[in-house]
Amino acid sequence: xxxxxxxxxYYLEADKIALAKTRSRPFIFSDDVWRFxxxxxxxxxxxxxxxxxxxxxxxxxxxxxxHRMSIKLGFHIAANCFGPGLSISHPGTIIVNSNAKIGAxxxxxxxxxxxxxxxxxxRAPTIGDNVYIGPGAKIYGCIYISNDISIGANSVVxxxxxxxxxxxxxxxxxKISDKGSKGLLTQAxxxxxxx
Length: 195
Known about the structure:
By secondary structure, the chain is an alpha/beta fold. It has helices at 5-18, 32-49, 56-73, 188-194; strands at residues 75-77, 87-88, 94-96, 101-102, 107-108, 112-115, 126-127, 132-133, 138-140, 144-145, 150-151, 156-157, 167-169, 174-177.
């Protein structure tokens, strides 16, 4: 969660590395996903760090642009769900419950749903660091997914996976390999720590 201006810049830099962007600012008529992620981080920063009444109109303006971009790209992603190094592969339907917590260096594809257990709005998944989520994956319930896991396309994950460094897939999801997410995503936070 972004709690300071230093955190804000750190999250932006990690997201830029995860998306393999060379420019800090996106092009005006392209890079929509990068523009969305920048708006997400800006909204998180102002929402979390600027509580004074004077900031409320500006936060509302940022939310308006963020919401408009969300609709354009097909995303329903709440603030403060993702750690640094988020990488959304391209526009397309992505739904993430506001109670979900996803760690650093997550790579998401289109048609992903991270939701709650039926009838419980607060029982959302907790997902570790360096997790690759393939296209069409559905992750729901009060579950925990460990670090360095790769989730296969069109998988339905509704139970805990505590073992790190594995690949899970299927309906319902089960362990299919010991490969993990290495090579499927950029560990942006590790690269930033080396600098």
